[in-house]
């Protein structure tokens, strides 16, 4: 224990670590026994801790620990049932986001609140008080001063629909600073950023700290917690567990405090004897919903017993790639072959029957793959109910599967008959991922399988994917955390604006190299033009057979037109 620290252990086993020097710091925010319930569910119970002026505080906790609920009370989206919030020593009542802004509190959500057809400057101008004069020239000058002061890089005349995720996030932060925020809450700020973009963000956040701002960061990335924060507050099951100084802790200790038990943070990459290619994709071109090219002449393959990661910035074509493989998005050109047989044009049901299972986790988890009003049991049956003989479905078997899945993945639900819309986002995700894997496919296409999941749940999913890999399943893994992809995947394919920038061995590359490829600054395909990148030497088809498939696809397309 470092000098200057006092440790207390409550009768509940909570850890309270206090630096005697902190008593001299000014308290920006104080939560005093905050309780919030939703019906019978207690989201927060007697939560009490402080946030100091000029510090970066990370808020950690598993899914359902009450992190976002607590911050939503600070930002005026919810109001606490019990307890008080103090801002700079003053007891306040925050019942709306406007109240929060009046107390100089601003929250940057994961899903941005921007008008796509407006420029950055116009979006900022939207937040000015009605009593203020609408003077774009003055607003531009003031915003430029903020950008210079903290190190932001932003084109104020750029339309939002032309911005990258990083640029949109920068705009959101500038917006709340322009409105005068001294207390900022960032919800999963690095979820979809490249390593280079994350580095820039952290530099700006540190500049804000030096200016006396108080920053609260909600995140699941422990390596980033250790890098950026001064202190960490841990919540578990809605209750305050403790606060620790970042310089006096480590990832293992933080995880144990979050989960309440020891957790092995090592991601295994079991060695397997790679089989022949199970899924081969050649010259694939797919359009997005608006008709633009989302996947541009992409070729790659997945072997049995292999995990192939696909890295890229949001909007690079990952979503469209998944949907094309699953048969729910038409392709413009190219061939998708499963075990040497083309699956282009087949309905999703036939593709599933061939052994390809897609576990795609969209932003709206309930919008694809699950029926919100149906129970966990009934959602387990969605892909198999048609196999029942006679007029009745086999709910007994489905209920057993649901029960086993709940126990295996630790899904928090009152029963197997609870509608999935009543579950938390992370538990909804477990139901979806678990169902896809339990169907026993030989190819799994899984996109963002741990999005929004806590540490313990995420590692359960990684273990399950590795179990499938050892069984000889080929896995296409689309994720957001490059550290995880480097540890879990055998190879990583990088996309930028729908084009392949290269395929690298995970054990031989770095986050920095992947980041450069994700932004288009490094294109390995240019360096290896003479090689047949993305084409398996031991393909299940000869070149003549591939050519015949392509000609067949072209003929069928002409016939449809």
Overview of this structure, please?
This protein has 18 helices and 22 strands. Among the domains are: 1-96 and 218-263, Rossmann fold (3-Layer(aba) Sandwich); 266-355 and 441-453 and 474-561, 3-Layer(aba) Sandwich (Rossmann fold), CATH 3.40.50. 33% of the residues lie in helices and 25% in strands. The longest helix has 18 residues, at 543-560. It has 561 residues and is of the alpha/beta class. α12 (395-409) packs across α13 and α13 (425-438) runs parallel beside α14. Strands 8-9-10-5-11-12 form a 6-stranded mixed beta sheet, sandwiched between helices. A 6-stranded mixed beta sheet has the order 18-19-20-15-21-22, sandwiched between helices. A 4-stranded antiparallel beta sheet has the order 4-3-6-7, with helices on one face. A hairpin with a 2-residue loop joins β6 and β7 (90-92). Residues 1-21 have low confidence and may be disordered.
């Amino acid at each position: 224990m470092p000098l200057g620290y006092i440790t207390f252990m409550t009768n509940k086993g909570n850890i309270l670590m206090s630096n005697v020097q902190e008593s001299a710091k000014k308290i920006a925010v104080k939560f005093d026994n905050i309780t919030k319930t939703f019906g019978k569910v207690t989201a927060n119970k007697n939560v009490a801790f402080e946030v100091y002026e000029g510090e970066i505080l990370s808020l950690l906790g598993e899914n359902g620990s009450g992190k976002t609920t607590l911050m939503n009370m600070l930002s005026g989206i919810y109001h606490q049932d019990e307890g008080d919030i103090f801002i700079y020593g003053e007891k306040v009542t925050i019942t709306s986001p406007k109240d929060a802004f009046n107390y100089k509190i601003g929250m940057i959500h994961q899903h941005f609140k921007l008008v796509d057809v407006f420029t950055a400057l116009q979006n900022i101008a939207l937040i000015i008080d009605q009593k203020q004069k609408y003077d774009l020239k003055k607003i531009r000058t003031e915003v430029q001063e903020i950008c210079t002061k903290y190190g932001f890089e932003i084109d104020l005349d750029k339309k939002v629909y032309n911005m990258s995720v990083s640029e949109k996030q920068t705009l959101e932060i500038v917006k709340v600073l322009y409105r005068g925020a001294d207390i900022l809450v960032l919800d999963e700020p690095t979820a979809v950023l490249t390593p280079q973009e994350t580095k820039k963000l952290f530099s700006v956040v540190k500049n804000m700290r030096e200016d006396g701002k108080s920053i609260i960061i909600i995140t699941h990335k422990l390596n980033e917690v250790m890098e950026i924060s001064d202190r960490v507050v841990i919540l578990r099951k809605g209750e305050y567990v403790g606060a620790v100084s970042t310089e006096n802790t480590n990832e293992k200790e933080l995880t144990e405090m979050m989960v309440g038990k020891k957790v092995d943070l090592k991601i295994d990459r079991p060695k397997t004897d790679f089989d022949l290619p199970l899924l081969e994709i050649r010259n694939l071109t797919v359009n997005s919903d608006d008709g633009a090219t989302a996947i541009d002449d992409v070729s790659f393959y997945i072997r049995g017993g292999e995990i192939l990661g696909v890295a890229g910035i949001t909007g690079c074509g990952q979503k469209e790639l998944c949907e094309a493989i699953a048969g729910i998005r038409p392709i413009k050109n190219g061939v998708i072959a499963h075990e040497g047989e083309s699956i282009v044009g087949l309905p999703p049901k036939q593709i599933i029957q061939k052994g390809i299972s897609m576990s795609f986790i969209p932003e709206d988890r309930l919008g694809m793959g699950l029926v919100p009003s149906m129970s966990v049991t009934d959602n387990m049956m969605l892909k198999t109910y048609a196999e029942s003989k006679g007029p009745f479905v086999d709910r007994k078997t489905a209920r057993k599967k649901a029960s086993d899945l709940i126990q295996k993945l630790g899904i928090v639900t009152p029963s197997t008959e609870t509608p999935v819309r009543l579950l938390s986002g992370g538990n909804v995700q477990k139901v979806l991922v678990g169902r896809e894997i339990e169907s026993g496919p030989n190819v799994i296409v899984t996109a963002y399988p741990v999005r929004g999941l806590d540490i313990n749940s995420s590692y359960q999913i990684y273990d399950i994917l590795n179990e499938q890999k050892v069984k000889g399943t080929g896995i296409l893994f689309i994720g957001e955390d490059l550290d995880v992809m480097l540890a879990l995947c055998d190879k990583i394919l990088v996309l930028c604006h729908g084009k392949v920038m290269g395929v690298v061995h995970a054990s031989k590359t770095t986050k920095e190299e992947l980041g450069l490829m994700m932004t288009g600054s490094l294109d390995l395909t240019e360096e290896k033009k003479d090689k047949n990148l993305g084409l398996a030497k031991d393909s299940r088809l000869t070149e003549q057979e591939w050519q015949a498939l392509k000609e067949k696809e072209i003929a069928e397309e002409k016939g449809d037109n």
